[in-house]
Design a protein that fits this description.
This protein has about 550 residues and is an alpha/beta fold. The protein has a single domain, classed as FAD/NAD(P)-binding domain, CATH 3.50.50.60. It is built from 11 helices and 17 strands. The longest helix is centred in the C-terminal third of the chain and has 20 residues. The chain is globular and about 70 Å long.
Length: about 550
């Protein structure tokens, strides 16, 4: 069934899609925003730890539904196995209005200038597709600023001595140090580090009609009960809807991007909440469904003009799947380190993002978010520590408030073989080919991960830890967190899937506004970079003149 045409259809109401929808309505465009999940209020999930986005024992609090959204993944043995969203190997991203920003930890980092110049800095290791971005930090700096002020980020300009130049301070002061941060700050300085407060997309003071953080310990993995967390679900999406120009359609699963005889995008087909197949025509299509689902849509949208899928003339779509090879350390202390003040992660250091002898790149280091009791029970333990029964309970009671973790998101070295593709035989509830994931991390990721873990351990020891246990990543399929890279940005089609405006090569009215376009993923949580790019892409879409101005 064909619906009335609009100016733009945006697929995915998450970190990037919500921004694009709002920016286009500001320009007077009529927008349809499609989301495979739905809006959720805080009381629906509350503080139920076993249904948080970090522990899916009782199902995914923010979707997707297990029974309908299958995937296929390559196991270590090489066999293809079916996986469900509640299984860790699914590489899940939240299916809900606001996407991952509804429940994320909300670290709001700018990448460093060198993060955009990885190949120039380190060369390309054998077996990698490591490359520079076609944009620089300076190109993105004004859009970082816009994201910080439009969405709301708390922090302190200049506190990180390694950060790139900025023209403007954060709109809010940083969240105050908690007990862990007060222990780690002098310890870090004692061993030559430069610790500082983490920039957070969380209100430290009331901002734009939303209250300040109440320091609830149920933060990462949960929706904020007072909406102090700067999710697109409570910032730009409500603003877009208030204009009357944006229509949000929930529980909608997009099947493909439609193209005309010349190969240009003309809309999408999707299944609505009643399972009816709908056709939404639009002058411009924007995909913001995540680096896994956006790649799947591009590959599903095959035509005679685009026989390998949209943007895939040279085979880049679905390749270079990246995440972060998280590494760090866990320590046990003689005194209580836990004070229950959420989100707990309050202090970081960027001394080891670059300039580490013998390794490629690195990561920022930060103290961990609060681990609630069940997650703590699954965390790193010393060899032989009890896992069951009374001894386990005693261990929990003794160490829960006297432990601390420090971790860093090591930016992975991209590989051509790490990919998202369509499974040739398995289909989902709607009869659409499911995506399948395959590949392995590059050996350099493990090497860098070990280095970062050693630095985290040194910081914990300096803070007085009695025992320290390092954690390094496995070598399996990337993209478990912070998915990126599957439709990378490039200056020409032979080198990537989108141009510097995030427009798909060969389809001049099709754009991408998610982590798919990241060439490399930085040594940071990537949400602010994704959102800065979404603001820049929105500006380029409006300037391209796809929609004539209204009288």
């Amino acid at each position: 069934m064909a619906l009335d045409p609009v100016d733009a259809v945006v697929v995915g109401a998450g970190a990037g899609g919500g921004i694009v929808a709002n920016e286009l309505t500001k320009a007077g465009w009529r927008v349809v925003l499609l989301e495979r999940g739905r809006r959720q209020s805080f009381p629906e999930t509350g503080h139920l730890e076993l249904r948080s986005q970090r522990t899916t024992v009782l199902g995914n609090a923010f979707g997707p539904d297990d029974a309908r959204h299958l995937r296929v993944r390559q196991a270590d043995s090489g066999a293809w196995v079916k996986v469900l969203p509640s299984e860790g190997s699914y590489n899940n991203t939240a299916a809900v209005v606001g996407g991952g920003t509804l429940s994320y930890g909300a670290m709001a980092w700018r990448y460093l200038p060198k993060d955009f110049r990885m190949r120039s800095t380190y060369g390309a290791p054998q077996g990698s597709t490591l490359e520079d971005w076609p944009l620089s930090y300076d190109d993105l700096e004004p859009w970082y600023e816009k994201a910080e002020w439009e969405l709301g980020v708390s922090g302190k300009a200049g506190a990180n001595p390694f950060e790139g130049p900025r023209r403007k301070d954060y709109p809010m002061p940083p969240l105050p140090f908690n007990r862990e941060a007060n222990l780690l700050a002098p310890a870090g300085r004692k061993i030559g580090m430069h610790p500082f407060p983490i920039p957070m997309a969380i209100n430290s003071v009331p901002y734009r009609g939303r209250p300040a953080c109440i320091q609830c310990p149920h933060c990462v993995g949960f929706r904020c009960e007072v909406d102090a967390k700067s999710s697109t679900a409570v910032t730009v999406i409500p603003t877009a809807l208030a204009t009357g120009l944006c229509e949000l359609r929930e529980d909608c699963v997009v099947r493909e991007v439609l193209t005309d005889r010349s190969g240009r995008a003309r809309g999408v087909t999707y299944f609505d909440k009643e399972g009816r197949l709908r056709q939404q025509l639009a002058r411009v299509v924007i995909l913001a469904a995540s680096a896994t689902e956006t790649a799947r849509l591009l590959l599903l949208s095959k035509t005679k003009i685009h026989p390998n899928g949209l943007g895939n003339r040279y085979g880049w779509v679905g390749r270079n799947l990246q995440g972060h090879a998280y590494s760090g350390a866990f320590g046990l202390f003689p005194m209580e380190t836990w004070d229950g003040a959420g989100p707990a992660a309050r202090i970081a250091a960027c001394d080891f993002n670059h300039g580490n002898d013998g390794v490629i790149g690195g990561a920022m280091l930060a103290n961990e978010f609060i681990r609630l009791p069940y997650l703590f029970a699954r965390s790193v333990r010393p060899p032989g520590a009890p896992r069951w029964g009374q001894a386990h309970k005693d261990w929990q009671r003794k160490w829960y408030k006297r432990s601390m973790g420090i971790k860093g998101p090591v930016q992975e070295v991209p590989r051509w073989e790490n990919r998202v593709e369509l499974d040739p035989s398995v289909r989902d509830h709607w009869g659409i080919p499911v995506l399948r994931l395959s590949g392995r991390k590059h050996p350099e990721d493990l090497k860098t991960g070990r280095w970062i873990a050693s630095r985290a351990a040194a910081w914990l020891r300096a803070a007085g830890a009695l025992e320290v246990f390092e954690t390094v990543p496995g070598m399996g399929v990337p993209g478990g967190q912070h998915q990126a890279g599957t439709a990378r940005m490039a200056r020409e089609a032979k080198l990537g899937a989108v141009d510097t405006d995030c427009r798909v090569f060969g389809v001049d009215n099709l754009y991408i506004a998610d982590g798919s376009v990241h060439v490399t993923n930085g040594g940071f949580n990537p949400s602010l970079t994704l959102q800065a790019l979404a603001y820049r892409t929105s500006d380029r879409i409006v300037r391209a003149g796809h929609v004539p101005p209204r009288a």
